[in-house]
Amino acid sequence: MEKTQQRKGILPILFLGYIAIYIDKLVIGVIAVPLAEQLNLSIDEKSYIFSAFFIGYSIMQIPFGYLNDKLGSKFVLIISLSIITVASIVFGSASTLIALITARFFAGIGHAGYPTSSARTVTDTYPMEKRTWAQSILISTSGIASIIGPLLIPIVIGAFGWRGSMFCIAFLFVLALILVIWKLPNMHKEKQKNKQVKAKAAIPFWRVVTNPAVVLLFIAMCSINIVLYTIANWTPTYLADERDISLGVISIIVAVAGLGSLLGSFGTAYIVGRFFQHREKRVIFVLSIITAGSALLVYQSSSIVVLTFWLFLCYMCSVMIFSTMFSLPLKRLHESIVGTATGVVNTGATLGGVFAPMIVAQLVGAFGNYQTVFIAIAVAALVTCLFVAFIPNMKTTQKA
């Protein structure tokens, strides 16, 4: 009964933090349009800002995952949210490219702690059969943020400028931080108190990083995040530069795509969690094919309405792939290494965010348009299902 009461309070707290996390991640693409105009930034300079975030994100995934297993998720959540809050305020105050890059680098460091500590909290709180549901509900915040963020940010930018929008995002992080400190139980401390004398030998770090499921998920997460972050961060720039669409219409298109993200997350929670337990690889295969095809059709569509539909479908399916894969470490790996393993897998995911802006800048620079960018998205989706196909089944991965 006590653990059931804890579950009721934990998910809303993590949910709010995830809303702030995804708004910060996803609306930076919209904010980058007026920011680049005001500071006269080139496409390469914008790519440095995006990449700096994911470099910081990548280098701290494994350390934060390790700290989750050793010191507990509440500690990491507090550190993570504190760093992001400060970095958001600095970014909103910055006037030079170096300051913007540095602020986003530290924002990435802060972001790195949140998914791993949330996954650790879900593992400590929920039984295995409910972990896909809980994790998918949290990831559904990406869809909510994708709808709310693009619709509200242009209004906030119009009223307060792009700097004001960053300060508003910082305020969300402050709220999440207060709730974590005040209301989130310290599961690690409770587990230490209730620990039975039958202590197990610690699993060496090298065995975690060489686990076949972890290695394959690392690569697959990298490729699917190339898809997700190319869509999230570069769609506004593509629509503005190549399609000559206004920021207001772009915001509506991005918000509709965000609805696809939301439905994809809830779809994973319900459909995969309920009907496809231990058959996730088949789901990912089908979704990868749909993602690749719809990405190609986004560029080919001359109608804005048709383009929006294919973008919606592409985003929905790629988020379902991501949500399904993100829950696999929670179900297929030993609880004692979930934090570290999730950190390793998330490092692959964030490397996708590092590579995405580099790929876009290189392809647009070489070909002068975004056609090859959408081809790259399709290829990355197919690479994802290829590596997921080789992930060992439950029986072979339950033991680290």
UniProtKB/TrEMBL annotation:
Name of protein: Sugar phosphate permease
Keyword Transport: yes
Keywords attached to this entry: Membrane, Transmembrane, Transmembrane helix, Transport
Domain Major facilitator superfamily (MFS) profile span(s) in chain numbering: 10-396
UniProt entry tagged with the keyword Transport: yes
Superkingdom in the source lineage: Bacteria
InterPro entries cross-referenced by the UniProt entry: MFS, MFS_dom, MFS_Na/Anion_cotransporter, MFS_trans_sf
Pfam hit, one: MFS_1
Cellular component GO terms held in the UniProt record: plasma membrane
PANTHER family according to UniProt: FI19708P1-RELATED, SOLUTE CARRIER FAMILY 17
Listed GO MF terms: transmembrane transporter activity
Main location: membrane
Taxonomy of the source species: Bacteria, Bacillati, Bacillota, Bacilli, Bacillales
Membrane topology of this protein: Multi-pass membrane protein
Subcellular location: Cell membrane
Transmembrane spans: 12-36, 48-68, 75-91, 97-116, 137-158, 164-184, 205-229, 249-271, 283-301, 307-330, 337-360, 372-391
